Automatic annotation (TrEMBL):
It comes from Peptacetobacter hominis. Catalyzes the reversible conversion of 3-phosphohydroxypyruvate to phosphoserine and of 3-hydroxy-2-oxo-4-phosphonooxybutanoate to phosphohydroxythreonine. Its main location: cytoplasm. This is Phosphoserine aminotransferase. InterPro entries: Aminotrans_V_dom, Pser_aminoTfrase, PyrdxlP-dep_Trfase, PyrdxlP-dep_Trfase_major, PyrdxlP-dep_Trfase_small. Pfam families: Aminotran_5. NCBIfam families: PRK05355.1 (NF003764), serC_1 (TIGR01364). It catalyses: 4-(phosphooxy)-L-threonine + 2-oxoglutarate = (R)-3-hydroxy-2-oxo-4-phosphooxybutanoate + L-glutamate; O-phospho-L-serine + 2-oxoglutarate = 3-phosphooxypyruvate + L-glutamate. Keywords: Amino-acid biosynthesis, Aminotransferase, Cytoplasm, Pyridoxal phosphate, Serine biosynthesis, Transferase. The keyword Transferase applies. Homodimer. GO terms for cellular component: cytoplasm.
């Protein structure tokens, strides 16, 4: 029996995708081999990567002057690739500190000080004093920076930008690892978007970068594997790309097209799912959400009882009923339900029922 997996990532995949992988495992479209075995230079794989990019472009409405790159190294490698490629005359970026992942991005930026010989990272605003429970707003954009960096959806703290900061013309770079494809975005608002595939686009091993073409500059000092120019020039085939992860992403996009058609529709359903859980949390006498109401994520919903022992009891109670990976991150404690695209509305209904039943037993 399959469990309901509320993991923050890698996370639950649509059954459509798993079934299709199973069907094509021994023989992909009559070529007598699985995708795992085929050369990345083969016609079959070329077809897979091209189809995947086309589907992503269509769903996200990516303008022609943006390049899509299929890379490795996780979201975490982008913390280094972004500055080494995007630094301009200032060799400095500003970060909005909204949690563990923006903190890590800032730490990697700071690490570059030994190369550039000056301060490379400034913090534009932070919500750390309130355990990252909200998104800072109306802050000043620091002077003398090459770009502003944000983590658009904070996987651990369950907060999300509902409105992008007004950067006053400064380039905006955003980590969409835990919210990509959850609702429409206007790609032109960003200089660069990146996201690991393992939450809303498939499995681990693949990171997608969407970058405005004029920002891809040839610079032979940048190590080849860190250079957007090298990867773009070779159509993400400078070295062996993560072939199976790209294939799975293609299937996830195919499922989104078939099941929802557009990100507008998918966004509506995601809002309904999240509302169901938040409405219950707002009225519960036992559980409460930890993120500020106006900044709540559609994808990651952290909540607590306020009592560590009771939290542990609930996690155990839920697990016995088939709800797994619902334990919160250690920095927030309590619980976290990650309800990515592949989590059906009915599963969130079941989770709410489970919480109601637990609540009844406590009161
Ligand atoms: N950014 C965000 C928002 C994340 O949630 C994560 C991983 N959970 C990362 C970056 C890091 O991604 P990776 O593990 O792929 O390096």
């Amino acid at each position: 029996m399959r469990v309901l997996n509320f993991s923050a990532g890698p996370s639950q995949l649509p059954e459509y995708v798993l079934e299709k992988i199973k069907d094509q495992m021994m023989d992909y479209e009559k070529c007598g081999q699985s995708v795992m075995e085929m050369s990345h230079r083969s016609q079959e794989f070329k077809g897979i990567i091209e189809k995947t990019e086309k589907r992503l472009r269509k769903l996200m409405n990516i303008p022609d002057n943006y390049k899509v790159l299929f890379l490795q190294g996780g979201g975490s490698l982008q913390f280094t690739m972004i500055p080494v490629n995007l630094f301009g005359e200032n060799k400095k970026a500003a970060v909005v500190n909204t949690g563990a992942w923006s903190k890590k991005a800032a730490a990697e930026l700071k690490r570059l000080e030994w190369i550039y010989g000056h301060e490379t990272c400034v913090i534009a605003a932070s919500s750390e004093e309130d355990n990252f429970s909200y998104i800072p707003k109306d802050f000043d954009i620091p002077e003398g920076i090459d770009y502003l960096y944000i983590c658009e959806n904070n996987t651990i703290y369950g907060t999300k930008y509902k409105k992008l900061p007004d950067t006053k013309g400064v380039k905006l770079v955003a980590d969409l690892s835990s919210c990509i494809l959850s609702e429409p975005v206007n790609v032109s608002d960003y200089a660069l978007i990146f996201a690991g595939a393992q939450k809303n686009m498939g499995i681990a091993g693949l990171t997608v970068v969407i970058i405005r073409e004029d920002l891809i500059k040839k610079d032979d000092r940048i190590p080849a594997m860190l250079s957007y120019y090298v990867h773009a020039d070779k159509e993400s085939m400078y070295n062996t790309p993560p072939t199976f992860s790209i294939y799975v992403m293609g299937l996830v996009l195919e499922w989104i097209e078939k099941e929802f058609g557009t990100l507008e529709k998918l966004g509506e359903i995601n809002r309904k799912k999240a509302d169901l859980l938040y409405d219950y949390l707002d009225n519960s006498k036992v559980f409460k959400g930890t993120a500020a109401k106006e900044d709540r994520s559609l994808m990651n919903v952290p909540f607590v009882t306020g009592d560590k022992n009771l939290d542990a009891e609930f996690i155990d109670f839920a697990k016995k009923k088939g709800f797994v990976n619902i334990k919160g991150h250690r920095s927030v404690g309590g619980m976290r339900a990650s309800i990515y695209n592949a989590m059906p509305y009915e599963a969130v209904e079941k989770l709410v029922e489970c919480m109601k039943e637990f609540e009844k037993g406590v009161l």
